[in-house]
Design brief:
Distance between the termini: 42 Å
Largest sheet: 5 strands, mixed, barrel
CATH class: Mainly Beta
Helix content: 10-25%
CATH topology: OB fold (Dihydrolipoamide Acetyltransferase, E2P)
Number of domains: 1
Shape: globular
Number of helices: 5
Length: about 190
C-alpha cells in the first residue's frame, strides 16, 4: 500500500524537493515510513550519542552520554573504500550528514573487527546497525544520494533497494560512472 502511495506521489510530483549535499543531486523521492531494524523476536539495542569521527562512507565513531566511544558500521549498505573511486566523496557526504550531530543507532549485533578509540585504546567489535538523524535513515539516504550500495547479501530492505534503483537511474554520485565497482568486489582484488 505504501509503495502505491509513493508511486502516486512521485508520478504526480507531490513529493517535496531536497537540497543538494556536496553537489550531489537531490536525494530520491523514496517516501517510506522509516523502519527500525526488524528484530525477529530479539531485543533491539538503542544507542544515542554524538558522531565524533568519520572513518569512511559507512563507518564512524560515536561518543555516548557517558563518554564511551563506539565504532558504528552502517548495516545493509556498503560504501566505496577510501582508496576506491568515490570513496573520499562518500566519506565527506556521511560527515556532512552526521559529524558533530546527535544520532540514534538501532542494532542487534557487533562484528569481529578491532578498532582504536580517539585515545588509541583498542576495542573489539563494531556495532552494525541502522543510524537515524532527525528520524531519517542515514543508511537509506546515503544510498539515495549514490554514496553507497545496497548490500543485498545482508539486506532485503525494499526501501533501500528502491533508493539504489532511483540513484542508478538518475546517475547520482557513484552511479555517474557507467560501471562502478561494488566495494565487496573491489576488496577481493
Amino acid at each position: 500500500m505504501r509503495f502505491f502511495l509513493f508511486l502516486f506521489l512521485f508520478i504526480f510530483g507531490c513529493v517535496p524537493e531536497y537540497e543538494k549535499v556536496d553537489g550531489i543531486p537531490p536525494q530520491s523521492q523514496v517516501y517510506a515510513e522509516e523502519s527500525r531494524p526488524k528484530s525477529d523476536g530479539k531485543e533491539v539495542n538503542v544507542l544515542t550519542g554524538i558522531a565524533i569521527a568519520i572513518t569512511d562512507g559507512d563507518t564512524f565513531t560515536l561518543k555516548d552520554s557517558e563518554g564511551e566511544e563506539h565504532r558504528i558500521r552502517l548495516g545493509e549498505i556498503d560504501a566505496p573504500e577510501k582508496s576506491q573511486e568515490f570513496g573520499k566523496e562518500s566519506k565527506n557526504i556521511l560527515g556532512n550528514m552526521i559529524l558533530d550531530k546527535q544520532v540514534t543507532v538501532y542494532w542487534l549485533k557487533k562484528d569481529r573487527f578491532d578498532w582504536k578509540t580517539t585515545d588509541h585504546k583498542t576495542k573489539n567489535g563494531r556495532i552494525i546497525g541502522g543510524v537515524f538523524f532527525e528520524n531519517e535513515s542515514v543508511n537509506r539516504k546515503l544510498v539515495e544520494m549514490g554514496a553507497a550500495w545496497h548490500y543485498t547479501d545482508f539486506s532485503k530492505d525494499q526501501t533501500i533497494k528502491a533508493a539504489q534503483e532511483y540513484a542508478r537511474e538518475n546517475k547520482f554520485g557513484l552511479w555517474a560512472n557507467d560501471n562502478p565497482t561494488p566495494p565487496w568486489k573491489w576488496r577481493k582484488k
